[in-house]
Write a structure and sequence with these properties.
The protein has six helices and two strands, in the order ββαααααα. It is mainly alpha-helical and about 130 residues long.
Length: about 130
């Protein structure tokens, strides 16, 4: 019996899977391949959008457009991270930091309030 590049009897393959804590199901289903360059481009785009929102006085219409583009970047990054790592914790953490950065760039939160929010979340997670 041959499965991709693994060859042997069903019993041998089963034994290898058990001994190596190896999931044959995950092996057979290719993981989504998302390049690190994609993550870099989306992250830098989000950082530029946040920087522009924070430092430049814009018209209300332009500010809304950049805000929506920033939310789109957070969503794209969240989906891509979830597809790549398949970990809800990674997805939620990235989304939380993205919203936090966007809140600071729109002057909804000060940097000090953002750090205090992070401390509260960290301390609450330690207590659980």
């Amino acid at each position: 019996m041959k499965i991709k590049d693994i060859e042997g009897t069903p019993e041998e393959i089963g034994k290898i899977c058990i001994e190596q804590n190896f999931s044959l199901n995950e092996y057979l289903h290719d993981k989504t391949k998302i390049s690190n360059l994609f993550f870099l481009i989306v992250s830098i785009t989000f950082l530029i959008l946040c920087s522009v929102l924070w430092t430049i006085k814009l018209s209300e219409t332009l500010q809304r457009i950049l805000f929506l583009c920033s939310l789109l970047m957070i969503a794209i990054l969240g989906v891509a991270l979830h597809l790549k790592f398949k970990k809800l914790t990674v997805t939620i953490t990235a989304g939380f930091f993205g919203i936090l950065m966007l809140s600071v760039s729109l002057n909804i939160l000060t940097p000090k309030e953002a750090i205090n929010t992070l401390k509260e979340r960290y301390n609450n997670n330690l207590k659980k």
